[in-house]
Structures are given as C-alpha cells and as structure tokens.
Amino acid sequence: MAQHHIDYNNQRITFEIERKNVKNVNVNIKPDMTVKVSANNQVPIDFIENLVYKKAPWILKHVKQFKEVQPERRSEREYVSGESFKYLGKQYRLRVKKVELKDEEGVKYLRGFIHLYVKEIDNLVKKKQLIDDWYRERARKIFSESLNKVHAKLEKYGIEKPDFQVRSMKARWGSALIDSNTILLNLELIKAPKPCIDYVVLHELIHFKYNDHSDKFYDMLYTMMPDWEDRKAMLDKEVVKEI
Predict the structure, then answer these.
(1) Which of 84, 115, 157, 188 reaches 20 to 30 Å from 216, CA-CA?
(2) Is the whole model's pTM more than 0.85, yes or no?
(3) What is the 3-state secondary structure (H, E, C) of the chain?
C-alpha cells in the first residue's frame, strides 16, 4: 500500500492508502497505531488528503490513546492483589493467594474477583503465565460459543462452519483463512463485551462468502448486524486501551 502524509498543527500524520472496491472512503486506526485509508480507484489523492486533514483531531486523539495506554499498562503489571484486569468488557480486581502445591496453582473467576493461586507469590513470570493461560482457556470457550451462535444464522447462505484458532495479533481482531477454512481470533478479544466478539466473528464468517470489503460484504454485514458500527467503535475505542 502507498504511504502518504499530511501536516496538521505542526504534527505529521502518515497514512496508507489501500485501493479497494468500496463505495465510501474509510479511515481506520489499527491497534498498532497504523492509519489506513481504503478507497476505490476513482477517488483522487487530494480528496483523500483533505479527508484525513478534516479527521486529523480524531486520528491524533486515538493514536495518542494507543501510544500512551498500551505500553504503560503492560510494563506496570505486577500481578498483585488489587490490580484491575478486564474480562468480557468489565474490570475485575485481582486477588492473589499463596498455595503450597503446584497442582493447586491456577486462576478462577469467583464472586466478582479474579483469584490467582500461585506457589511462588513473588514469581512475576509465573503469575503472568497463569493469567495468560486463563485468558486463553476462557477465550477458547467464549469464542467457540460465539462461533456456534453466529454461524447458525449464516448456514442458510451456504457458509460452512470453519475451525478457529486463538492467536496474539498486533494489528487485527480477526482474520479469515479461506483455503484452510479457519478463522483466527485475537486473544485480546476476551477482554471485550460479548457483542463485540460476535461482531468480529460475524465479520470473519462473511469473508467466506465475500472475500473482500466490497459493497456486497457490507450489505450482508448490515443485514445480519445493523449495529455493527457501534460494536466496532466500542471495540476500537475502549477495549484497545487494555491491550
């Protein structure tokens, strides 16, 4: 994709333009802070640059949000009682408890708290591993439930139910691998409300009928989920703070 830039209030915004078969010009900020613009081949460069300039305050706001929040929250984690962790759209306090045996180690959600049971209470690496393993286990269960629910509404369109894998991804919430009939879902989605998870699953499933972002793709997305834009906004603006 071609790279371009505009200057706004002494700040440079670099963005990529992807030429696609779409009706509207869309501006997106990815979780890795990349600014991407999709537009069809008939849209001139100066129109796109003017649009980016008009949306510059919104772009800079979210790029700043991603830049400031993501690194600090990762580096400051100590996995001690009282820390807050997001799960399915809500914040929960962590309670760390020392156990005597390795077999007793693990993580449980109970009565509004996330309980971390660990033998070596000062072992940061082990505590992080236990939390990450718990997130991954919950992701497999919740994503599977979402896939079953959403796919049931698409069977009449001839879309075969794909397999899914949970992955850590920097710039995407999901990805459809058409040839292997598999969708990849970002582990961080487990921190999102279930409606947001359903949106990502639906988005990827529709790619098995329309493997692009054409008008037909979005027509089907609107038909199946009229509020998908609200769900995407919630995902991109709120959940990404916790990544």
Answers:
(1) 188
(2) no
(3) CEEEEEEECCEEEEEEEEECCCCCCEEEECCCCCEEEEECCCCCHHHHHHHHHHCHHHHHHHHHHHHHHHHHHHHHCCCCCCCEEEECCEEEEEEEEECCCHHHCEEEEECCEEEEEECCCCCHHHHHHHHHHHHHHHHHHHHHHHHHHHHHCCHHHCCCCCEEEEECCCCCCEEEECCCCEEEEEHHHHHCCHHHHHHHHHHHHHCCCCCCCCHHHHHHHHHHCCCHHHHHHHHHHCHHHHC
Give CA–CA dist 183/167, Å, rounded.
Answer: 10
- How far, in Å, CA of 192 to CA of 201, rounded? 13
129 contacts 79 by C-beta, under 8 angstroms: no
Q: Which residues pair with 84 in a beta bridge?
A: 93
Residues 20-78: pLDDT tens digits? 888 889 898 877 788 999 999 999 999 999 999 999 999 998 888 776 544 444 447 89
